[in-house]
Amino acid sequence: MMQSRQNVLEQVRVACELAKRSTADVELLAVSKKQSSDVVRSMFETGQHSFGENYLQEALGKIHDLSDLEITWHFIGHVQRNKTKQIAENFAWVHGVDRFIIAQRLSNQRPAHLPQLNICIQVNIDHQDSKDGCLPNDVADLVKQMSVLPQIRLRGLMVIPAPNNTQAFTQAKQLFDTVKTSHANPQDWDTLSMGMSGDLSEAIGAGSTMVRVGTALFGVRS
Ligand SMILES: *Cc1c(COP(=O)(O)O)cnc(C)c1O
């Protein structure tokens, strides 16, 4: 586990070097869906402190089991309306927000004693039929509306392009730069969540600031 993380960090380093970017500007998010609490604990002990989960019930079990660790938990699955309260109460970040009503509920339900909930808007950047995410043309309006919600901090965009569509990463970066002007607090707009095990180098080349990596860290999921 130590070795797989070192390999991924080395891949990130090389991609940053090629792109003339600083490695400090790209965060590695470990995607731990389908992995046990013990596996997450072992990965934490190698120095990995941010983890992404897709399935709420599974994630809540791990958050409970690992409450002695200083883990930053990211919800990266699609957010359903009836799940917003538990997500707002248990996570630090949410990447799959694609409608205003969801952001509004997350803001209303974020407990006052916690810091603002960090949000990325999921964009269906390459117009895939069966995909979650808002359309690129809707992003500027969503940024304008969501960026004034009091209990969330709107950080950026999240995309999952079709496999091999690396051109979509460049489009996502352009959109990310363009819509910044719609943000009420543009200094918060700093996160472009894109790139997974198979395409993290291309994503970093295009400007990703957070790669979400599962398989390359933990092996193939059963
Ligand atoms: C599962 C998943 C990942 C990680 O994918 P790998 O190919 O295993 O690295 C990243 N992002 C999202 C949204 C996922 O659901």
CATH fold topology: TIM Barrel
Q: Write the CATH architecture name.
A: Alpha-Beta Barrel
| Number of E strands | 8
Radius of gyration: 17 Å
Main β-sheet, in a few words?
8 strands, parallel
Tally the structural domains: 1
Identify the strand order in the major beta sheet. 7-6-5-4-3-2-1-8
CATH superfamily: Alanine racemase
Q: Uncertain spans, ≥5 residues at pLDDT below 50?
A: none
Ligand catalogue: pyridoxal-5'-phosphate
Q: How far apart are the first and last residues' alpha carbons, in Å? A: 17 Å
Question: In what range is the share of β-strand residues?
Answer: 15-25%
Distinct helical segment count: 9
Output the CATH class name: Alpha Beta
Helix content: 25-40%
Structural class: alpha/beta
CA-based shape = globular
> What's the pLDDT, averaged over the residues?
97
Order of helices and strands: HEHEHEHEHEHEHEHEH
Could you outline the blueprint of secondary structure elements for this entry?
Layout: H1 2-18, E1 27-31, H2 37-45, E2 50-53, H3 56-65, E3 72-75, H4 84-90, E4 93-97, H5 100-109, E5 117-122, H6 139-146, E6 152-158, H7 167-179, E7 191-193, H8 200-206, E8 210-213, H9 215-218
Parallel strand pairs: 1-2, 1-8, 2-3, 3-4, 4-5, 5-6, 6-7
Helix pairs in contact: 1-8, 4-5
Bound molecules: pyridoxal-5'-phosphate.
Residues 31, 33, 54, 76, 160, 196-198, 212-216 line the site of pyridoxal-5'-phosphate.
